[in-house]
Design a protein that fits this description.
single chain; about 350 residues; alpha+beta; Heat Shock Protein 90; five-stranded mixed sheet; two-stranded antiparallel ribbon; 10 helices; 7 strands; elongated; nucleotide-binding; transferase; transmembrane; His_kinase_dom
């Protein structure tokens, strides 16, 4: 936080400044107490008033003690002092204005000093506590920004190097394809290197999404669904795909939405117990959403597993694909659910928000 030089000098004495405020409140409270004793005599109410004011003074001193032992940086400690001063001045001014208005009306106001002391010192404590939470929130936000920047750099660095390696593999595989007759082992190399390159593209989209650089925008997902179906058909020749996807399905999403369909279609095939599995992919519009259904004819999912299916952490090994689907749908403001398919298997439904009408 950039502050003037005089503020930086005061910031180094932030706890002491709060202690001085607490001391001032105590002195003013004692002076007001002795004045009340001279006027009203020593009684219960002046004593109670003094106790209340001294308690608030102790609160400011306690805030000073906490600040002195805290791990807040210098700038954040000064923020706490400024909030405390602001609360004290603000609430004290409100109390003084209230008294001034009553006096201007010709009314007699007794005990005005007590109200100003209580309001001012209470505002100082409340402002200091609010300043602590504000400073911590700002610190957490700065730390999050630093971690995000570091992750973005790491992702960019790894993506660049892995993508270059995949492109080199693809290049040499192409050269070998032109020079050798037996290409039996080249096809898997080309497919896997292409898959790595595609994965890197997906990672770029995901990194941009999670770093906040990409926000959901209107896009047509029909072509993306069909593209993932064709990719799965090429990779799993024994599988049958029944597709009913209308064109121009515009939803609020990003380029990373392809990972949703890729993971769900892959799960429908890989967790199927049939030699020749069948996957059903359909989509339909509702007035507010677009629902995409991906179903299979596999063994299904137990009810107790369905309950916690989307609770897996995205970094965990098991269920990573499902956790990624849930994370992406949360970013898009959509929903994902799972149910039994009829007569056999599992159906997963992802619902996207439709773009607002223009």
């Amino acid at each position: 936080m950039d502050v003037p030089a005089w503020e930086r000098r005061l910031a180094g004495h932030a706890p002491s400044l709060l202690a001085i405020l607490g001391g001032v409140v105590a002195v003013v409270s004692l002076a007001n107490f002795f004045r009340d004793v001279e006027t009203l005599g020593l009684g219960v109410f002046p004593t109670v008033s003094l106790g209340l004011c001294l308690l608030l003074s102790v609160g400011l001193l306690g805030l000073s003690h906490w600040l002195a032992g805290s791990d807040l940086p210098l700038a954040d400690a000064w923020t706490v002092v400024r909030w405390s001063l602001g609360g004290m001045i603000g609430f004290g001014t409100l109390a003084a204005l209230t008294v001034g208005i009553r006096l201007a009306e010709g009314r007699t106001v007794d005990g005005a000093a007590l109200g100003i002391i209580v309001m001012g010192s209470g505002g100082g404590i409340g402002g200091g506590v609010a300043g602590i939470y504000y400073a911590r929130a700002n610190r957490a936000a700065r730390d999050a920004d630093h971690r995000r920047d570091a992750l973005v750099f790491l992702n960019s660095h790894l993506r660049h190097n892995v993508l270059n390696a995949a492109q080199v593999i693809q290049g040499y595989a192409t050269l070998l394809d032109e020079r050798v007759d037996d290409v039996t082992y080249l096809a898997p190399i080309e497919r896997r290197s292409a898959a790595i390159a595609s994965l890197i593209d997906d990672m770029r989209e995901l990194a941009d999404l999670f770093s906040g650089e990409r926000t959901p925008a209107p896009m047509d997902i029909s072509t993306g669904i069909l593209r993932e179906v064709e990719a799965a058909r090429s990779a799993h020749e024994a599988a049958t795909f029944e597709v009913d996807v209308p064109p121009e399905l515009y939803v609020m999403a990003t380029g990373a939405v392809s990972a949703v369909f890729a993971n769900l279609i892959r799960n429908a095939i890989e967790h199927n117990d049939r030699a020749e599995p069948t996957v059903f992919v359909s989509a339909e519009r509702t007035p507010r959403t677009v629902a995409v259904r991906i179903a299979d004819d596999g063994p299904g999912i137990r009810d107790d597993v369905k309950t916690h299916l989307f609770d897996s952490a995205i970094e965990s090994g098991e269920g990573r694909g499902i956790a990624l689907v849930k994370t992406l749908m949360n970013h898009y403001g959509g929903d994902v659910s799972v149910r039994d398919n009829d007569p056999r298997g599992t159906e997963v439904v992802v619902e996207f928000r439709r773009p607002p009408p223009e």
